[in-house]
Design brief:
The chain is an alpha+beta fold. It has five domains: 4-154, Transferase(Phosphotransferase) domain 1 (Transferase(Phosphotransferase), domain 1); 162-258, 2-Layer Sandwich (Phosphorylase Kinase, domain 1); 272-438, Transferase(Phosphotransferase), domain 1; 478-506, no CATH class; 519-643. The protein contains 18 helices and 21 strands. It has helices spanning 7-14, 19-39, 74-77, 84-100, 122-131, 143-154, 162-170, 213-216, 219-233, 275-294, 347-350, 358-373, 383-392, 398-401, 407-416, 428-489, 502-506, 528-538, and strands at residues 4-6, 51-54, 59-61, 176-177, 180-188, 193-199, 204-211, 243-249, 252-258, 262-264, 297-298, 307-310, 315-317, 324-325, 519-520, 547-549, 580-587, 596-603, 614-621, 624-630, 637-643. Strands 15-17-18-19-20-21-16 form a seven-stranded antiparallel β-sheet. The chain has a six-stranded antiparallel β-sheet with strand order 4-5-6-7-9-8. The model is unreliable at 156-164, 323-338 and 482-644 (pLDDT under 50).
Length: 644
């Protein structure tokens, strides 16, 4: 007898399903939905309890009188009319459940099952997330579109041998490769798996990208993997994920990279960013691209999934695994065909032409478009249909989708995404300059809004302050008597005016360092003379008398005032002796009048033979600077504080 069970029962008894089993069951459900949409209308409740699967994998769907809210589209829960898009929302929720073993939340924030379970092909991950989009118009609209998506998943190597591959790679967990103990699998791409690993020598966690066994045996793939690693290892920028090491051991080829605890822009799919927030997130990515382009490296796959967001909100461009040095002698393939993601692919990539850095500018423009509108500009039933739209279809004006986008920012998007490369920004630096101008415009507008709000608040308080003025006169008179007495007798030595006398109390207070609320592009300044000139000419943030305390002299940052490194002065205009690559970001928190300064970067402060980098994080507020440093030789975290 061929036993039949609901999909919910199968998952409860067996646990989460493999991607290929989910794809096959979902294909049959989609066929049933296609027939239903042709012949019937009205509401249909689809859930894991409604889908019945026999032991041979044959699927049927039974009628139900209801479904749990997590399997009901948001518009239906609000009383809307049933549509095909609502049915595919339910199917996406059922697939999410089968892939993860857990039902999605009714108001799901992260619709990508791949963020919960490793080994899900990215094409399947994106298809499920598209089904679960909040807005009906952004979902799969028909069975034909859904089935086309499944066909793309099953093409090529995306599904071939995946279960066998995962079984093999499970054996790597706990194993130490190249000094890195693999402790957790983080995700899987088309040609590599990423693990979280522990590096005992430096007492830190890293991310390790491993070439699968059957790829490692192929000299062509292994060669490409190592060439990609060499290209990226030469890049040193705070918004590029750094490469620590790479090599082969025991038949396993790997790359060790910085481990970032956080998420990606992809996990915010569908979110509409405020214009200023979007610009401030995109600018560091643009600076990273400008830095890489000047060194002949093209990313070729700029998209939200490749932008990591650290815990403190800093964007880091990852996965230069498709990048190539722009030299014919180092190209393994001269055409550039097939590199990129259709939703963000430049027209020249779609045509299979050889690309240059302007393809990255196009992809960055599409990414900015999505951040500001909540969706990519082009969609189709097939990936090739999307590519063809990038090649020939006009870009839907961003402001038609979101009228809150400033015209100046729309112009940047339209220029960056011009069909012809020669009509785009000709360098990332040009796009950065345009974005910075918009940032200044939006920042000034925001500051004006804050000032207006503050003035309204002050006006409302003037009446209250007037009523309090009478008793304040008496209080001030009493305070004056106490100050005169204290300045002479000084009974409490800890009072700030005891040493300097009463005049110190009435002197003008030291001005708080005024930090511009803007973003400043210093991410690609590699030599101190340029860095010093820019710092001295444009701004000085740290007061002249701020000094370092508790410095390890062997690794101190030297300055002209103290060439031996002792008690080094960290004023920005006096950094020297080391090649530096810093990115500066300024923010004004909601509390009016407070400023914070964030500095991120690495300084090559180690013996040349080590080839490693020292990492720094600095925070500066009006009266304190904290600097945390990890040294290259011991990996010990050391803290420095500056106080004024």
């Amino acid at each position: 007898m061929n036993m039949q069970k609901t999909w919910a029962t199968w998952v409860r008894e067996e646990g989460k399903w493999s991607p290929d089993r989910v794809v096959e069951a979902a294909r049959q459900v989609a066929d049933i939905l296609a027939e239903r949409h042709r012949t019937t209308h009205g509401r249909w409740f689809l859930s894991p309890e409604a889908v019945v699967i026999d032991a041979e994998g044959r699927v049927s769907v039974r009628a139900m009188e209801g479904a749990p809210p997590e399997y009901v589209a948001p518009e239906l829960r609000a009383g809307g009319q049933p549509t095909a898009a609502a049915d595919f929302y339910a199917l996406g929720a059922v697939m999410y459940f089968a892939l993860t073993g857990e039902p999605p939340a009714a108001e799901i924030e992260d619709p990508f099952p791949g963020n919960k379970v490793a080994g899900i092909p990215p094409e399947l991950d994106e298809l499920v997330a598209r089904c679960l989009a909040r807005q009906p118009e952004r979902r799969v609209q028909s069975a034909a579109e859904f089935l086309s998506g499944l066909e793309e998943i099953q093409k090529g190597e995306a599904m071939a041998g995946r279960e066998t591959l995962l079984d093999v790679e499970d054996q790597l967990l706990g194993r130490t490769i190249g000094g890195y103990q693999l402790v957790e699998r983080l995700g899987q791409g088309g040609m590599a798996t990423v693990y979280k690993a522990y590096e005992a020598a430096l007492d830190r966690y890293v991310a390790v990208k491993v070439l699968p066994d059957f790829f490692a045996k192929d000299p062509t793939f292994a060669q490409r993997f190592r060439r990609e690693a060499r290209a990226v290892a030469q890049l040193n920028h705070p918004s590029i994920l750094p490469i620590y090491n790479f090599g082969s051991e025991g038949g396993v080829t790997y790359i060790a990279m910085q481990y970032v605890e956080g998420g990606t822009l992809k996990q915010k799919a569908g979110q509409v960013y405020a214009p200023l927030e979007a610009v401030r997130l995109v600018l560091p990515v643009a600076r990273a691209l400008a830095y890489a382009h000047r060194r002949g490296v093209i990313h070729r796959d700029v998209k939200p999934a490749n932008v990591l967001i650290s815990e403190d909100g800093w964007p880091i461009l990852a996965d230069f695994g498709l990048a190539r040095m722009v030299e014919a002698s180092t190209q393994l393939t001269g055409t550039g065909v097939g590199i990129g993601t259709p939703a963000y692919m430049s027209p020249e990539q779609g045509r299979g032409e050889k690309v240059d850095h302007r393809a990255d500018i196009y992809s960055l423009g599409i990414m900015l478009y999505e951040m500001l509108t909540g969706d990519v500009p082009f969609k189709a039933d097939t990936p090739m249909g999307v590519v063809l739209q990038h090649i020939s279809a006009p870009l839907p004006p961003p402001r038609k989708r979101n009228p809150d986008i400033p015209e100046s920012l729309e112009r940047i998007i339209l220029k960056a995404t011009a069909k012809k490369p020669e009509e785009r920004y000709q360098s990332a630096d040009e796009m950065i300059a345009a974005l910075e101008a918009v940032e200044r415009e939006l920042t000034a507008r925001q500051a004006g809004d804050q000032s207006a709000s503050l003035e309204t608040s002050h006006s409302a308080g003037r009446a209250r302050r007037g009523r309090a003025a009478g008793w304040l006169v008496g209080a001030v008179a009493l305070l004056a008597v106490l100050i005169v007495w204290a300045s002479v007798a000084c009974p409490w030595p800890w009072l700030p005016w005891c040493e300097a006398g009463s005049a110190a109390l009435f002197a003008s207070p030291s001005p708080t360092p005024t930090l511009p609320v803007t973003s400043v592009a210093l991410g690609d300044i590699l030599f101190q003379d340029v860095f010093k000139d820019k710092a001295a000419a444009d701004w000085v943030f740290i007061p002249e008398d701020w000094k370092v305390v508790d410095v390890d002299g062997r690794h101190a940052i030297r300055s002209p005032a103290s060439p031996d490194g002792a008690a080094a002065d960290l004023r920005l205009a006096e950094w020297q002796d080391y090649a530096v690559a810093f990115d500066f970001r300024f923010e004004q928190p909601d509390q009016f009048g407070e400023y914070h300064f964030f500095l991120r970067g690495r300084i090559n402060d180690c013996p040349s033979e080590s080839g490693n980098l020292q990492s720094y994080q600095v925070r500066v507020s009006p009266n304190k600077v904290d600097l945390n440093r990890e040294t290259c030789d011991q990996g010990a975290a050391q803290e420095m504080s500056l106080s004024g």
